[in-house]
Amino acid sequence: MAERARGQDTVFTMISGGDIVADFLAQDVTVETVMSVDSQRYIGETANRYAESFEGYRLQVSGHAEGSSAIGGVLAVFDAVERRARGEKVGHTIHVSSTLFFPNGDLRSWTGKDVRFENPSYQVRGNEFITFSFSANCSAAKRS
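^ that's the sequence the OP posted. Answer follows.
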């Protein structure tokens, strides 16, 4: 029987001066490695030459915030993202870390460094959880 990985504990951390300022969990995460293939044709050759180029990572994230500390974490990160986009010096670096748990007990982690956000949003509906979603990009990541 094949061992299947399951995603769990995708943690977002905002770090300032080496200290965690805010963090929260997300439920759904897609990490896409963005690459392109370049084609060049040279005089006298019968076929094109191809080269790959790495362009970074793209993230699609959504989840719901449970508890006041998680809601505070989401709002603190979104506030820092907006202030940074407006050109203010916020002094925070935002990292995204996702861990995969395998049935045999193995763990594998992916951490995106200095993540840049697009269109962060959150939604409040009656007595339900506060949900959030965003797209983000980063150029550096670490796998362990």
